[in-house]
Amino acid sequence: MTIREELEYQEHRRLNPLAAFADQSRGRPRYEQPREEDVRTCYQRDIDRIVHSKSFRRLMHKTQVFLRPEGDHYRTRMTHTLEVTRIARTIVRALGLNEDLAEAISMGHDLGHTPFGHAGEDALSRCIGKPFRHNEQSLRVVDVLEKDGAGLNLTHEVRLGILGHTGDYVPETLEGQVVRRSDQIAYVNHDIDDAIRAGILTDDDIPASITDVLGHNHRDRINTLVCDTIRTSREAGKILLSPAVDRALKELRAFMFENVYRNPVAKGQESKAKDMLQRLFEYYIHHPEALPEDFQPQLSFDGMERTVCDYIAGMTDNYAVEKFSEIFIPLGWQRKG
């Protein structure tokens, strides 16, 4: 028995029968012959492929909520991803599910996010004339765009977990459903933390109808949501919150949309960011020769609009600003480092 086979065997001995077992994966889009010397299960290999990808490294320079904030401690897409991963692993461990699968989905769930957060999504939606959805782009990144067009060839369960972390599609695995819930737990709470840091909120601003259920500080709110998910899901055999906690979370999300996500302090620069991306899109549509060399072959099979959209969606915040400055701002007026 190889080390990989031993790990797969141990999964069957220790995990919940409802878990997604590595040796029962529905496979990859392109078949890969298992290597006898590989000590990793298929989901462990997927984690490594994501972590070593270019799109994963770019997450550290992509906005979460606040555009280019003053301070070092605001969340980025990278720190958000790590927080989702930790929450998801805590929940799946307590439920006896597959931590490796949950980690792979968590690590890959936001790879398709645009620069400037959801403002970038809105800008690209206008450019292409239909909704740009970052979960669909995340799947496109791992399926098509990474490794110079070869994709990462991830397992079925990881791919659809990434697609279903938000939106109408709900993942078929319990691990994927845990990541979907963990994403909500992570962002709504760390966005409160960042909003307090920015002076937009205080803990006292959150209505008592929410804090009396979820807790009066960052730590207690996350603990309540994680523990309630575990307790309720263990009893139900599916991923659920109790009715009272679910209502409080929905009320908290509504509060955040009204007071933070649409707050002019948090979003005051969004119109400029959107305009920047739209002008970049228009420029590359009319100057495809200006696209990087590794995007040139894509033009012949994906077309102009899709290729330009992929290029801009993959930009970091700083890179988008640099390209805009390079193209549209006279050299003598550009800011010096």
Plain-language structure description:
The chain is 62% helix and 0% strand. The protein contains 16 helices and no strands. It has helices at residues 3-14, 42-51, 54-58, 77-95, 99-108, 117-128, 134-145, 156-163, 174-197, 208-214, 218-236, 243-261, 264-267, 270-286, 296-313, 317-328. The longest helix is centred in the middle third of the chain and has 24 residues, at 174-197. It is flat, with a radius of gyration of 21 Å. The model has no long low-confidence stretch (mean pLDDT 92).
- End-to-end Cα distance, whole Å, is 57 Å
Task: List low-confidence stretches.
Answer: none
Helical stretch tally? 16
The main pleated sheet reads as: none
Pairing-aware structural class of the strands and helices? mainly alpha
The sequence of SSEs as H and E is: HHHHHHHHHHHHHHHH
Integer average pLDDT: 92
Task: Report the oligomer.
Answer: single chain
How big is the Rg?
A: 21 Å
SS elements, strand count: 0
* Bulk shape: flat
The helix fraction, in percent, is 55-70%
Relative strand content: under 5%
